Amino acid sequence: MKCGIRLGPLEISIAVITDDGDFVYSSSFKPADTYSELLVQLAAALKHCSNRYDIPSPVGVSVKGHETPSTGMITSLHHPLIAQKTLRRDMQAALKHSVIVASDGQCLAVAARSVLELDNKPTIFALSLDQSVCGGIIVSDKLLFGPHGLAGDWGHLSLPWPVDHEMEGRICVCGRTGCLEHFVSLEGLSHDYELLTGKKLTSESIIKQAETGDIVAESAMQVLEDRISRGLAMVIGLLDPDVILIGGMLAESKRLFTNIPRKWPGNIRSSVNSDILVPLRTSNPCPDHLYLHGAGHLCDYAK
Ligand SMILES: [Zn+2]
Questions:
Q1: How many angstroms is it from 182 CA to the middle of ligand 1?
Q2: Most CB atoms closer than 10 Å: which of 104, 217, 219, 262?
Q3: Structural domains in the chain plus CATH codes
Q4: Could you give the count of Cα atoms lying within 13 Å of 262 in the half-sphere of its Cβ?
Q5: Model confidence over 105-126: pLDDT tens digits?
Q6: CA 79–ligand 1 middle distance (angstroms)
Q7: Cα(77) to centroid(ligand 1), Å
Q8: Which of 228, 86, 244 is CA-nearest to residue 161?
Q9: SS3 category, 16
Q10: How far apart are the first and last CA of the chain?
Q11: Cα 272 to ligand 1 centre (Å)
Q12: What is the model's pTM?
């Protein structure tokens, strides 16, 4: 049995997962307004699970941010309530249970390794393309955190091989200019469409419009694919992973997995098989399923 928590700014999910990967319990609720109330809320949620199931240690927690190992502090751009807090230590005290904390991207990498048959793929890069953008790296069944907890923090690297107009006024949520997250998140796609048309549309609508042959939406999608391709070319140059998995809302767009590898030859010195790029989707109705699965299985890979 495993227990995973996804701690988001708008919703908290908790799940109890069998060793076969089945969700025997899952629940979601709105987070409290203060940090101390949040800890009480999490303790109550875990107690509810413990009353029904034998919850082993540690419980894994997926967050929008990362933990700095030397201080235990969370750095988060998207979840102010937990930013600069010693979340793991505070949760352990409140829950009376040991806890592991990792980013959404790192949990997605663990989910990929534990859900898919990747035994012959020692180096895995997983990318969450959603409202926020982050990655995770597994090498030889070990999730990499790094001395600063930053391993896989792809979203706040700069867009490589930029053309002049791409850097103008592109201030990221982190305060710097030109971060990949600013370009390839759901909001990034929506922002690009707005620059082209003056109209604001959701990324889901833009993807649908491109499918129906809308030229402007198609253009926005091609630019998005080119930017993700450039960002992944950098990952391939540094890590040369056996497999790259994309999860999150944008992974629902099937065209990405055909079009992104087609653009690699311009940016990668060697020929790379297109089949290393794989979608990470799930038929489980719980929207947080993969992140919860990854959080629950952190104990197996965060050695
Ligand atoms: Zn940034």
A1: 7
A2: 104
A3: 2-107+285-301 (3.30.420.40), 121-279 (3.30.420.40)
A4: 8
A5: 999 999 999 888 788 999 999 9
A6: 14
A7: 9
A8: 228
A9: strand
A10: 18
A11: 28
A12: 0.94
